[in-house]
Amino acid sequence: MSFACLLYGLSPRQAVAADDKQQPCIYYWGEARYVIGYDHIVHVVNKCEVEANCTLTTNVNPQPEVFTVEPGEHKVITTWRGSPAASFAITLDCKLGEGS
Questions:
Q1: HEC profile for the chain?
Q2: Contact 52, 67 (CB under 8 A)
Q3: Cα-flanking dihedrals φ and ψ of residue 24, to 5°?
Q4: Containing structural domain, residue 14
Q5: Which of 29, 36, 40, 93 is the most buried (most CB within 10 A)?
Q6: Separation of alpha carbons 15 and 40, rounded Å
Q7: pLDDT in tens for each of the 100 residues of the chain?
Q8: How far apart are CA 85 and CA 87, in angstroms?
Q9: CA-to-CA distance for 24 and 40, rounded, in angstroms?
Q10: CA distance 83 to 46
Q11: What are the Cα distances from residue 28, in Å, to 60, 66, 72, 84, 98?
């Protein structure tokens, strides 16, 4: 499953449904922190009981970032540094590991 959202600075948390029959347990949101230009940062939180294997891209950085988020873990991924844009769109695809 893939999800996208347009972000303007701090945004509300977005839930990613791991499966249509399950309650959402993967949450993500983005922020743009101004340093010298905007750093685009994505937060991914796993509230599932199993690990999640995720692929993250943005409209600013289409190079896929592949990572695992353990149960209860909060991952912070910087996808771009020094962007002139304060907004960016996230596409996050997460699949739950064994035991789901």
A1: CCEEEEEECCCCCEEECCCCCCCCCEEEEEEEEECCCEEEEEEEEECCCCCEEEEEEECCCCCCEEEEECCCCEEEEEEEEEECCCEEEEEEEEEECCCC
A2: no
A3: -60, 135
A4: 3-96
A5: 40
A6: 19
A7: 333 333 333 344 555 444 443 337 999 999 999 999 999 999 999 999 999 999 999 999 999 999 999 999 999 999 999 999 999 999 999 999 865 4
A8: 5
A9: 24
A10: 28
A11: 17, 15, 13, 23, 21
Nearest one of 66, 75, 67 to 29, comparing CA atoms: 75
Amino acid at site 52: A
Q: Whole-prediction pTM value? A: 0.77
* Tokens at 44, concatenated: 């991914």
Q: Which two tokens stand for residue 60?
A: 């600013």
**Structure token digits, residue 67:** 């990572």
Q: How many domains does the chain have?
A: 1
